[in-house]
Amino acid sequence: MAKKLIGDPIDRIDGDLKVTGRARYSADMKRPDMVYGVLVMSSIGNGRIRSFDTAETLKMPGVLTVMSYGNAPKVAGINKNKPSEVATDRVMSLFQDNKVHYNNQPIAMVIADTFEHAVDGAARVKVTYESQKPKPPLPAGRNNTFTPERLPRYDDQVDTKRGNLKAGLSGASTKVTETYTTPTQTHNALEPHALIAYWEGEKLTMYNATQGVSGVQKRISELFGMPKENVRVIAQFVGGGFGSKGATWSHVMLAPMAAKLVGKPVKLVLMREHMFGMVGWRSSTVQKMVVGTKKDGEFTALSHDTISQTSAFDEFAEPAGTISRMMYASPNMESTHRLIRANIGTPSAMRAPGEAPGVFALESVVDEVAYAINMDPIALRLKNYAETDPHKNLPFSSKSLRECYQQGAERFGWAKRTPEPRSMREGNELIGMGMASSIYPVNRAESTALVRIKPDGKVQVETGTQDIGTGTYTVMTQVAADVLGLSPDDVTLSAGDTRFPESTTSGGSRTTASTGSAVTQAAQAVLKQAKQLAYKDKRSPLFNVAEAEIVAENGRLQTKSDPRQGETFVSLLKRNGSKPLEAKMLSKSADEKDNYSLNAFGSIFAEVRIDEALGRIRVSRMIGTFAAGRILNAKTARSQILGGMIWGVSMALLEDTLIDPRTGRVMNPNLAEYHVPVNADIEEIDGFFIEEKDETVNPAGVKGIGEIGVVGSVSAIANAVYHATGKRIRDLPITLEKVL
Ligand code: MOS
Predict the structure, then answer these.
(1) How far is the CA of 378 from the centre of ligand 1 (A)?
(2) Taking the mean position of all CA atoms in its chain, how far away is CA 229?
(3) What digits encode the pLDDT tens for the residues 262-271?
(4) How far is the CA of 194 from the centre of ligand 1 (A)?
């Protein structure tokens, strides 16, 4: 019997490999004669290097060399090492000059025969500097006196205006103006950034922990000034990325440079401390929100002004205002984004860039409005429900947010909540209940997949995307099996290698929509070939049967009306010379983006319990309900959602990269002092999906689920904290001293 395939909660096909330690990550690979690189980082925040003293290091056993400004190979494509419109092309530190732009910037690499020798050698490199005062980072709520310098260069961050904000505000009976601030946050994937680079003549191979093998291939070949085909990037398994492995950062170029310099394969694994600054982080933000409303809750005006920071030498702006433009039907709306420059590593996309901090501000201020006019927060949101996208002025391809509110409220028991702050308690604990909307746009990028039906009836799929821990291997296998009427066991998927047809970077929750569409279309194309082979073949039981009458099921092609009339792929191919059938398809967006607003939606409900005397905050319950198109695998999808919601707990209560404004140095660059939740921090948590059939959004019918989990979670918790304590905390993270 054919299994039900799409939606089935099947186990990860790579699960066994992972839990038994047989899955090989980039740093697990080995090459004969491999040597080890360890980075030396700057200890000033701004200035230049006067000199290196490497005498002691070079005397150490096993040390081959110290690569730094002076002996580092010249980078041919360095002129391309400039701020780009492509957010993944970051300006790198490649030891081409002696400038120091931030504290903890890579300035040299010690290369030795063992990792230990390299670590020891790196500790003995002495550097003298000419130091200047670093420009301090955005103080995120602790002190907001600064002048934003400039407009971001990116299209989605231009100022926007709908209607007339002033007029809208003058027509309001209640006006709420508040500023929300979020700190610098640092992605901390379990697997650190790591790679092994080796040269074979002109050809470079890299095992590299990345969210995008083809992006790395493109960038590195450009910088070396060599043909793309000469660079091979492999990432079979990746232990999380969260945006941090989406760009090609300095170390990815430094390792092959070092391999060239010493003529040996070089392995470079970043220390945890090195991951705070040189591989991106989420910028701190200051967000001013204004909402005008009538007595009945109808918004007359809404504005969202964001300031974030970028580095002194490159540009990235946190697009926090983009959701506020379209989430509610306010006729008058304005948004702005501004940047300051600081001597820090360049910020980057971190899980739901823009949406996560931006919706914290938006859904917090909406909660404040609900209290100001004494209205239920869900009723207020329904009152301002956007039936069409008011920013793009387009219909939604599908939007089931109403159902998300309603089902979420029911599951959570929202009706039991008494709205008055501090009105619910148990013993010493104040209980708070809060809710928020969640949303994430549907992204899609050009992707190619190849599907091959082999003479033994098994199917091989090849695509140059990668599984960053999200379950891509599993769901792509399911997609191909579904189209071809096979069991997932009969399908093998190969990914994570630039040898396979080019596919998307795994970022912006886009892999399943992009690669999933390519796999769908390639599988449909190869199925069509098989059908043609059958109905044109006099010897086939399907000879002369109309193509539309033929379906694929259980490894067979058969007629819709009579499953017995048909044959297996095996017999079909055997009769036709035992040659495989294959199809390669490039899948890209048609015009759906011009005609529809494409988004996944959700609701988050959170309950907190706060020890009144100690201020200790626990998130005791969290329920997320999402509508994200077709759900391909109930198990991996739920894992994605729960991971995002836990990230929300992390962002709401814990994460805070502390940068000393005097030196630009991170004060807590380790997982002991940079807090993220552990199992004991997470109590009852669950995630649900609402069935949503959306045939417009893309051929796979899916919306991304990698980031939407975090988006509303932060404000749901913040709103619950207010409900529990009567204290509105507008500066993340919400730590115990703030509620006392
Ligand atoms: Mo993600 S922050 O879109 O890699």
Answers:
(1) 29
(2) 28
(3) 999 999 999 9
(4) 18
| 3-state SS, residue 61 | coil
The predicted pLDDT at position 2 comes to 45
Percentage of residues in the chain with pLDDT exceeding 70? 96
Asked whether the predicted pLDDT for residue 420 surpasses 70, the reply is yes
Mean pLDDT, rounded, of the chain: 95
Q: Which of 52, 308, 275, 74 is nearest to 180 (CA)?
A: 308
With a cut of 50, say whether residue 72 has pLDDT above it.
Answer: yes
User: Which one-letter DSSP state was computed for residue 365?
Assistant: H
Span 516-527, mean pLDDT? 97
Residues 6 or more apart in contact with residue 136 via CB below 8 angstroms:
342, 343, 659, 661, 662, 664
Ligand 1 and 508: CB distance under 6 A: yes
Q: What's the whole-number mean pLDDT along residues 416-427?
A: 98
User: For 132-149, what is the mean pLDDT?
Assistant: 69
* pLDDT value of residue 551: 97
* Residue 9 is assigned to a structural domain of this protein: no
pLDDT score of 147: 59
Nearest C-alpha neighbor of 675 from the set 188, 349, 263: 188
pLDDT at 334: 97
Judged against a pLDDT cut of 80, whether residue 708 lies above it is answered with yes
**Region for 486 from its dihedrals, namely left if φ exceeds 0, alpha if ψ lies in -120 to 50, beta otherwise:** beta
CATH code of residue 39: 3.90.1170.50
Question: Could you tell me which residues come within 8 angstroms of residue 75 by beta carbon, excluding any fewer than 6 positions away?
Answer: 81, 94, 96, 223, 224, 253, 257
Domains contained in the chain, number:
3
Q: Is the CB of 240 under 6 A from ligand 1?
A: no
Rounded CA separation 57/67 (Å)? 12
Name the residue of 245, 707, 708, 710 to mutate for ligand 1: max ligand atoms within 8 A of Cβ.
Answer: 707
Q: Which residues are catalytic?
A: 707
The reply to whether 489 falls in a domain is yes
For residue 701, pLDDT over 50 is answered with: yes
CA geometry: angle 419, 424, 425, nearest 5 deg: 165
Same domain, 317 and 418: yes
**Count of alpha carbons within 13 Å of 18, Cβ hemisphere only?**
16
pLDDT at 707 over 80: yes
- Locate the ligand 1 atom nearest the alpha carbon of residue 245 and give its number: 4
**Position 140 in a domain:** no
With a 6 A CB cut-off, is 351 part of the ligand 1 pocket? yes
694: containing domain? 155-184+281-443+594-739
Percentage of the chain lying above the pLDDT 90 cut: 91
Q: Cβ neighbours of residue 696 under 8 Å, at least 6 residues apart?
A: 397, 398, 592, 596, 598
Q: pTM for the full model?
A: 0.96
CA of 350 to the centre of ligand 1 (A): 5
> 122 lies in a domain?
yes
User: Which atom of ligand 1 is nearest to 211's Cα?
Assistant: 4
Token pair 């899955």: residue: 23
**CA of 353, closest atom in ligand 1:** 2
